[in-house]
């Protein structure tokens, strides 16, 4: 499973390598921050308990 910080670094590097400094007017650092929120605030409920994803991303993502 890919660590979350490494995934975020890869995302920003990919966009930068392909010539993006902004995507639809949004700077890459903001995109990284928003992606970080999606990865780090990912929770699920199982058996009446709430769990937070701490490594990698959600299944099927």
Automatic annotation (TrEMBL):
Highest taxon of the lineage: Eukaryota
The protein's name: Uncharacterized protein
Protein species of origin: Rotaria magnacalcarata
């Amino acid at each position: 499973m890919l660590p979350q910080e490494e995934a975020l670094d890869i995302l920003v590097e990919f966009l930068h390598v392909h010539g993006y400094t902004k995507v639809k007017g949004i700077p890459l650092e903001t995109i990284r921050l928003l992606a970080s929120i999606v990865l780090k605030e990912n929770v699920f409920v199982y058996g009446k308990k709430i769990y937070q994803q701490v490594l990698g991303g959600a299944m099927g993502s």
